Amino acid sequence: xxxxxxxxxxxxxxxxxxxxxxxxxxxxxxxxxxxxxxxxxxxxxxxxxxxxxxxxxxxxxxxxxxxxxxxxxxxxxxxxxxxxxxxxxxxxxxxxxxxxxxxxxxxxxxxxxxxxxxxxxxxxxxxxxxxxxxxxxxxxxxxxxxxxxxxxxxxxxxxxxxxxxxxxxxxxxxxxxxxxxxxxxxxxxxxxxxxxxx
Length: 198
Description:
This protein is mainly alpha-helical. The protein has helices at about 1-70, 75-95, 100-105, 105-145, 150-195.
């Protein structure tokens, strides 16, 4: 009888130890997952900050450079306005994403805000591509007006350089855009997994 009681007590101790180990493992996994999510959120926000800074720098710089090479004031203002629109869009899509919400356990807020940011990013091309096409056409027209008296070879060289620069910039922008969307989707998936385990 005493042996059976001792065995039962020993089994209880082992179960308690096992439960404690599982709880510790769960806490560690939860913490590691939150750290990974926080890192992804930092990357998304860090990228947005850099793009925002570039937009702010390019507002006056674009205006002054295009003015210097002879473009119209209207075109220079439109160029600065385009960078301002990009800055505002970036700010609006990121300003509510905060790492502290992950650590405080407010995953519903994080999920909602990341989903909102992803939705804005997915609709980005509906307005940005038409704006860029109009801006680029206007720039080519201004180059033609400014260089109409010049040698055709020079005009062609400048136009080809602008097109090549636009293509390179477009490729870089598209890669950043896709990487941000992929990171946001990973983050949403991880939040869903974490919420299922809670």
